[in-house]
Design a protein that fits this description.
The structure holds 2 protein chains of 2 kinds.
Chain A: H1 3-35, E1 37-40, E2 44-47, H2 53-58, H3 62-92, H4 98-106, H5 113-123, H6 129-136, H7 150-174, H8 178-186, H9 191-202, H10 204-220, H11 223-228, H12 236-246, H13 250-275, H14 277-281, H15 284-288
Antiparallel strand pairs in A: 1-2
Chain B: H1 8-31, E1 55-59, H2 72-80, E2 83-87, H3 93-105, E3 114-118, H4 119-127, H5 140-145, E4 163-175, E5 197-200, H6 203-213, H7 223-238, E6 242-246, H8 250-256, E7 261-265, E8 277-280, E9 287-294, H9 302-312, H10 315-325, H11 334-341, H12 343-346, E10 362-363, H13 370-382
Parallel strand pairs in B: 1-2, 1-3, 5-6, 5-7, 9-10
Antiparallel strand pairs in B: 3-9, 4-7, 4-8, 4-9
Helix pairs in contact in B: 6-7, 7-13, 10-11
Classes of the chains: A mainly alpha, B alpha/beta.
C-alpha cells in the first residue's frame, strides 16, 4: 500500500477535524484565555492567570445554577412524558397521516424561536382566556397569574424543546420490530409487561438522545426566563448575559460559561454511564441487556 | 483491500499541523492584547465636514422617528440624495454598548456614522475614546436652534461630542381604571399592588426615583444612598411586589393589562394601547434625560452624519418629528409651529413641559463610583 492510500483515512477525517478545530477548539481557547484575564473596562482586561475568576463567577450565582437544573430537568421530564406517547402514536397508529403528523411536529420551527416564545406571552397574559379557565378550574388561584412565574418558564422550555424529544424517539420507535412484541405476547406477557420489557428497553437509545438534546439546550437557555419569567426566575444563561452585556465583566462571564460547560459534561457523562454508552451510540443489543 | 492501520508518522504530521494552526491563531490574538481600556478622549479626532452624499447608517431607539414616505428619513434622502440605513437597534444603553464595545475598541463603528444614546452613555463612550469631537462651525443650524436649557449639560458642558435628539422624563405610568390612587413612587411599594408593578432595567431611571421617594437628592447622592435604594428595590423584587424589570416592553404589559403601574418614559403614549393608561409626574418629581446623537470613531461618512444633524434641527422637520413621537424636542420654534398645526399637542405638558411642571425633577446622573453600584443593581435586575 502506498503512502497515498495510507493517507486516505486522514483526508476523510480532515473536514470533520477542521470543523472541530475552527468552531470548537479555537473558540474554547479564546474563551479560556479571556477567563484568565483581570482588569476593568476602563483600564482594559489583560491576561494574568487570574484563576480567582472561576470561584468568583460562582459566588452569588448558585441559586440561578440550581434553578437552571430544576427548570431544565422538569422541562425534560415533561417533554418525555408528552413526546413518548405522541411518537408512539405517530409511529404505529397514525396510518396514512404519519407524514402529516410529523410535519405538524416540525411546523412550529417555520416561525422563529423568539416569536414563538413571545406568542406564549400573549397566551399566558393575566387577562387571557386560558388563564381564566385555569382560574375557574382552581388550578391557578383566583388572584394568581401564570406569566412571570416558574410555571411559565418551565412550560416555555418544554414547548420550545419538545420536537427535539419527539424526533429521536420517533426515529427509534419507527425501527422497532413489532414481531418482538407479538413474540412477547405469544409468551403470555401482558401488554404492560411487553411494553416494560420489550418496547421500553429497545427505545432507550431514542430516550437518551432525546433527553440529552432537550436538557442541554434547556439548561443554557435564557430567552424563556427573560420573556416568560419575572424577578425570581433567572437562569444561569441570564446571569452570563448580564455579566457579558450589562456588567461587561468579560473574564467572569467566560469563567462562568466554562464552568457550566464542565458541569454539563460531568452530568452528561454520569448519565450516559448510568444509561450505558451502547444505548447512546445506538447499540440496541447493549440497551436490551 | 483492507486498509492498513494508519501510519503513525503521518498521524503525527496532521496533529502537528493542527497544533501549529492553533498556536498561530493564538499568537495572532495575543498581538492586540487588551480588551477594553481604549484610547483616551484627549487625542480624539474631529468629525470631518464636507459634501453631504453617499450612504449613512444611523442606530436609534425603536419608535423614535416618523416612518414612511413623508417621514424624516425619506425627506432627508429626497433633499440630499443620501442613502440612509436607519437601524432601530438601541433597546437599552447597556446592551447596545455591550454589543458594540469590542468593535469600537478596534476603532470600528460597525458601519454606523451616528448612534443615539442617553447622556451618561455618551459620556462613557467619550471617556473611553469611542467618539469623535464635533466642530460647531459645521453645525450652524443646530447651535442656532438648540434650546438654551440644553446648551451646557454637566456631562458635556461645551457640547463637544453630543447633539440632543429628544429629551424626556422618567415617571410613573398608571392604569387609572385599576389603580387611580397611584401618584407617588412609594405607592408602587404598596402590597395592594403586589405582582402588578414593573420597574425599568435602566439603573439611572429606576434608582433615582426610589431615592427621591426617600427624600434623597439623586444629584447629591452618595454610593451608600444608591445601594440603600437598590436594597429597597431588591426586597420588593424578592417579595414578589415587582413583577418584572423591563426595557421599553413595559408598554406591552400595560397594554395587555398585566400590570397597574410601571416606572416608564413620558413620551410613550403612542405605543401604549390602553386608553386608561396615563403618564403621571410622581409627587416626588421626575428624572430628566436626553438622548443624543454622537459620531463614533471609525464612522464611515461623517459629512452625511453632520448633514443629518443639521437637517433634524430645522424647526419644520423637528415639528413633524414631535407630532409623531411626542417626546420633548430640543429644537427652538417647534411649539410655535405646532400651535398652528396641532394646538392640543402644543399645550401638552409632557411634550412642552413648563419649569413649574418640572420643579421637583432631577437631571439624570450616575452614582459616584459606578462599578460596585451597577454590579449590585444588575444582580437585582437579573434575579
Amino acid at each position: 500500500m502506498n503512502l497515498r492510500q495510507r493517507l486516505v483515512p486522514y483526508w476523510l477525517l480532515g473536514p470533520g477535524l477542521l470543523w472541530l478545530v475552527v468552531f470548537f477548539v479555537v473558540p474554547m481557547y479564546f474563551m479560556g484565555e479571556l477567563a484568565l484575564r483581570s482588569g476593568s473596562l476602563t483600564t482594559g482586561y489583560t491576561f494574568s492567570w487570574e484563576w480567582a475568576n472561576f470561584p468568583d463567577s460562582l459566588s452569588g450565582h448558585t441559586e440561578q445554577i440550581l434553578r437552571s437544573f430544576f427548570y431544565a430537568g422538569a422541562a425534560t421530564v415533561l417533554a418525555l412524558l408528552i413526546a413518548y406517547p405522541l411518537a408512539y402514536a405517530i409511529a404505529f397508529r397514525a396510518g396514512r397521516f404519519r407524514l402529516l403528523l410529523l410535519f405538524a411536529v416540525i411546523a412550529p420551527f417555520f416561525t422563529t424561536y423568539l416569536i414563538r416564545t413571545l406568542a406564549w406571552k400573549t397566551i399566558l397574559s393575566d387577562s387571557s382566556p386560558l388563564v381564566g379557565v385555569l382560574q375557574t378550574l382552581q388550578l391557578v388561584p383566583e388572584d394568581g397569574r401564570v406569566l412571570a412565574t416558574s410555571g411559565a418558564v418551565i412550560a416555555g422550555l418544554t414547548y420550545n424543546f419538545l420536537p427535539f424529544m419527539i424526533l429521536p424517539l420517533y426515529a427509534n420507535l419507527e425501527r422497532l420490530d413489532l414481531r418482538l412484541i407479538e413474540a412477547a405476547k405469544d409468551l403470555y406477557s401482558s401488554s404492560r409487561q411487553a411494553f416494560l420489557r420489550v418496547t421500553l428497553p429497545l427505545t432507550m437509545p431514542g430516550i437518551i438522545a432525546g433527553v440529552l438534546l432537550t436538557f442541554i439546550p434547556a439548561f443554557g437557555d435564557y430567552i424563556n426566563a427573560q420573556l416568560l419569567g419575572g424577578t425570581q426566575q433567572a437562569m444561569v444563561g441570564n446571569v452570563i448575559q448580564s455579566l457579558y452585556l450589562n456588567q461587561r465583566d468579560y473574564p467572569e462571564a467566560a469563567a462562568l460559561s466554562f464552568l457550566m460547560m464542565a458541569l454539563i459534561l460531568v452530568v452528561v457523562s454520569l448519565y450516559i454511564r448510568f444509561a450505558g454508552t451502547g444505548a447512546f451510540m445506538g447499540d440496541e443489543d447493549e440497551a436490551r441487556g | 483491500m483492507r486498509p492498513e492501520a494508519p501510519n503513525r508518522k503521518s498521524g503525527l504530521g496532521l496533529a502537528a499541523a493542527v497544533i501549529a494552526l492553533v498556536l498561530a491563531l493564538g499568537l495572532a490574538a495575543c498581538g492586540g492584547d487588551t480588551v477594553g481600556g481604549g484610547g483616551s478622549s484627549e487625542d480624539a479626532t474631529t468629525a470631518k465636514g464636507g459634501p453631504v452624499e453617499g450612504k449613512l447608517a444611523i442606530s436609534n431607539w425603536p419608535g423614535y422617528i416618523d416612518p414612511g414616505k413623508g417621514g424624516t428619513v425619506a425627506e432627508f434622502e429626497g433633499e440630499t440624495g443620501v442613502d440612509v440605513d436607519y437601524i432601530e437597534d438601541v433597546n437599552d444603553n447597556e446592551t447596545f454598548f455591550g454589543k458594540l464595545q469590542p468593535q469600537l475598541e478596534q476603532g470600528d463603528s460597525g458601519g454606523r456614522s451616528i448612534f443615539v444614546v442617553t447622556d451618561w452613555m455618551a459620556k462613557q463612550m467619550w471617556d473611553l475614546g469611542y467618539l469623535q469631537e464635533i466642530d460647531h462651525n459645521d453645525l450652524p443650524t443646530v447651535f442656532q436652534n438648540l434650546v438654551p436649557t440644553l446648551e451646557s449639560p454637566s456631562f458635556d458642558p461645551e457640547r463637544q461630542f453630543s447633539v440632543p435628539w429628544q429629551s424626556g422624563m422618567t415617571g410613573i405610568w398608571v392604569d387609572t381604571a385599576k389603580a387611580p390612587d397611584i401618584r407617588s413612587v412609594n405607592d408602587l411599594f404598596d402590597p395592594k399592588y403586589k405582582g402588578q408593578v414593573t420597574m425599568l432595567t435602566e439603573m439611572r431611571d429606576s434608582v433615582p426615583l426610589v431615592m427621591k421617594s426617600e427624600g434623597v437628592d439623586p444629584e447629591e447622592a452618595t454610593n451608600e444612598d444608591w445601594l440603600k435604594a437598590i436594597d429597597r428595590v431588591k426586597a420588593a423584587a424578592d417579595s414578589g411586589q415587582i413583577r418584572r424589570f423591563t426595557g421599553n416592553d413595559y408598554t406591552e404589559d400595560l397594554t395587555a393589562g398585566n400590570i397597574v403601574a410601571a416606572i416608564g418614559w413620558s413620551g410613550d403614549a403612542s405605543i401604549v394601547e390602553n386608553e386608561n393608561a396615563e403618564w403621571r409626574m410622581p409627587t416626588e418629581g421626575c428624572v430628566l434625560w436626553s438622548d443624543n446623537m454622537v459620531i463614533p470613531v471609525g464612522a464611515p461618512n461623517t459629512p452625511a452624519a453632520l448633514g443629518w444633524m443639521e437637517f433634524s434641527y430645522e424647526p419644520e422637520v423637528a415639528a413633524d418629528l414631535t407630532e409623531y413621537i411626542t417626546y420633548v424636542s430640543p429644537v427652538d420654534g417647534v411649539q410655535d409651529l405646532l400651535r398652528k398645526s396641532d394646538p392640543q399637542l402644543a399645550k401638552d405638558p409632557l411634550v412642552f413641559p413648563t419649569e413649574e411642571f418640572q420643579r421637583n425633577c432631577s437631571t439624570q446622573d450616575s452614582p459616584p463610583d459606578v462599578e460596585p453600584v451597577n454590579e449590585a443593581w444588575q444582580e437585582v435586575v437579573t434575579g
